[in-house]
Amino acid sequence: MRFQLLGPLSITDGRDVVVLPPSKPTALLAALLIRPGSVVSTDHLRGVVWGEEQPTTAKAALQSCVLRLRRIFAKYGIEDQAVVAVAGGYRIQADTETLDLLHFRQLVDRAGTSGEEAELYTLRAALALWQGPLLANVPSDLLHRDEVPRLAEERLRVLERVCDIELEHGRYRETLVDLWEVTRVYPAHERFTEQLMLALCRTGRQTEALAEYRRIKEHLREELGVDPRAELQRLELAILRGDDLGAVDTGRAPVRFGLRGTHPGTGTPTVQEHERAAHHQQPAAPEAAPLPTVPGFTGRVREVKALTELLTDRQQDAASVTDMGTENRSPVAVLSGAPGIGKTALALHVAHLVRGHYPGGRLLLPLTRPDGTPLTAGEALGALREASAGQPGTGPTLLVLDDAVHPDQVRPLLAANARGATIVTSRMGLAALVATHGGTVHRLGALEPRESHALLTAVVGRERIGAEPSAALLLASVCGHHPLALRIAAARLLTRPRLRLADCADWLRRDLPARLSLADDPRMSVPLTLDEALERLPPALAEAHLRLGSTPHDVLTTGRAAAVLGIAEGTAEEVMERLLDAGLLEEGRPGAFWMHDLLRAHARRATALPPGPVPDPAHPSWRERIPPVGRTSPAALR
Q: What pLDDT score does 290 carry?
């Protein structure tokens, strides 16, 4: 049995939860659990249970209260956690398996000393242990006055740290979810307001950021008669002046993320005073990092086989000499496809499979910052050289270049890693890179039904999936066999052990793709991923995608696209090619294209327009509004 103190005081066996009724034994138990393993004096316990108006027979009454608590333990089969009478008071033993408060503290301690991939994930897991208003069912003024604020402060410190990490890595929209809530619960907490203002500014919402400053200023003056602290005042002044606030300066060791948006990193930063708010700072380039693992990877059998063969034959191929007397090129593999389709997961999985062939190590280098802006080739080279200098091994290195947006980002890195091999992931096709440097290309689509079933089984468990085989197939179909969507649905099932697969599938399909997101981690979200993908496109091209996705046509041809967009067929063909290259369309037979069901559902929600209206041909030329192919200047990436 496990006691849950971080919320209404309750007891659980892992399946069922019993919330204890408000009573004196409940208050007694709370007082003992707050100090697990320690002797709690009888004087303190009497104060907890009766307050200042204690009965004349308080000693006997306390003994009677302990007896009632022991009867509650017997009722629910609690045998390992006995209330023990000792000299001067009582004690109850607990550990991380039997008390959520100790589990929370263990996770926080572990996060502070964890490796480069685990801190944010571990802190989020710690926060997830909090289940609602602290000790809401415990009738004790003393505990609510002295203990509840202290325990709540532990949670706030962790949440502040989580928001610092999110801000450090440019996840401003995700951070807003936490910050809106906590600033309403704690309206005088200046640090959270400062973080909220930063997040709002960096999502282009300066007006709301200034409104938050006015809110806390008025609150502090009315309640305490003081002004906001100097950091907040300087931040407000920087916003009013229109200064570029630059990258978050935490004043501590940077937190590195092995995999952007999926595998968080480590460190302990807090946002420093904004002394330098008026000075522009380019967001720091992501650092190359050791490879995170991909739990529950399934499917992609053909691609895994082809990539493994390519990368393990490297030594023989690299040493072979052509008739011209020059060495063959180092192996290069390009993985392309739609957002969230599993490109990075496949690259990391294969990199782990071939690790024995690369004594120089394996490095992951994101080529796009968290805010979606690409690294220049010089920035990427600098990050690669710094990471390579710290590699313990010697010999060939396997480099995973994640989320490339242009061939010119990649070419200098291939030259720098000429003795090794490289896997490049990109939403773009990178045809120009393949034309100049060769290599294999794998365009990833949705999983096969059997692969989706295998993924759900690997994550959720064979027993639960096997109990509802038809519902599992339906759930995979509702998710469009899209890897990110499947993992989100699987995570929802894992956290809700009583939720039937059929009910989950029915609930999801009633509002696709909006419900394919996780409340405790907004980064795990299909809509957010697709929104971010559209933000990278020129506005007119993004608009074209949304209009095409909102049409009733399952198959899109150049003629149909021209009619929907009100443009010439030649321009429509260019638009379709651009969307195909961006991973937002798939190609069937020549001249026929189709859009994944989740992308179509997202487009319909985004447009909120009836499908199929033909735009006014008098609108400005689409060709003028859409930048030409290769709109990212190669010179800008050098």
A: 56
pLDDT at 138: 93
Indicate if the alpha-carbon torsion angle 313, 314, 318, 319 is positive or negative. negative
Query: What is the rounded (10 degree) CA torsion for 389, 393, 394, 399?
Result: -70
What residues in the chain have per-residue pLDDT under 70? 80, 114-117, 242-291, 295, 314-329, 389-393, 520-523, 608-638
Task: Let me know: does 343 contact 337? Beta carbons within 8 Å.
Answer: yes
Alpha-carbon span 9 to 592, nearest angstrom: 60
DSSP string, 265-328: -B----PPP-TTTTS--PPPPPPPEEPPP-TT----HHHHHHHHHHHHTHHHHHH-B-TTS-BP
Q: Is 186 helix (H, G, I), strand (E, B) or coil?
A: coil
Please name which of 377, 120, 362 lies closest in space to residue 257, comparing C-alpha atoms: 120
What DSSP state is assigned to residue 637?
G
Two structure tokens written together for 560 = 């149909």
**What length is written for the chain?**
638
Environment class of residue 206 by beta-carbon count within 10 Å: exposed (0-12), middle (13-18) or buried (19+)?
A: middle
Label residues 32-42 b or e (16+ Cβ within 10 Å = b).
Answer: bbbebeebbeb
Q: In sequence order, which ranges of 448-557 are alpha helices (DSSP H)?
A: 449-460, 462-467, 469-478, 483-495, 501-509, 526-535, 539-549
Contacts of 359 (CB under 8 A, 6+ apart): 393, 394, 395, 396
Question: 């179509």: which residue's tokens?
Answer: 600
Q: By C-alpha distance, which of 283, 259, 497, 279 is closest to 379?
A: 283
Q: What is the pLDDT of residue 517?
A: 86
The pLDDT of residue 292 is: 72
In which element (H, E) is residue 68 found? helix 58-75
Tokens of residue 40, six digits: 């709690």
Neighbours of 86 (CB within 10 A): 9
Angle between helices 501-509 and 469-478 (to 10 degrees): 20
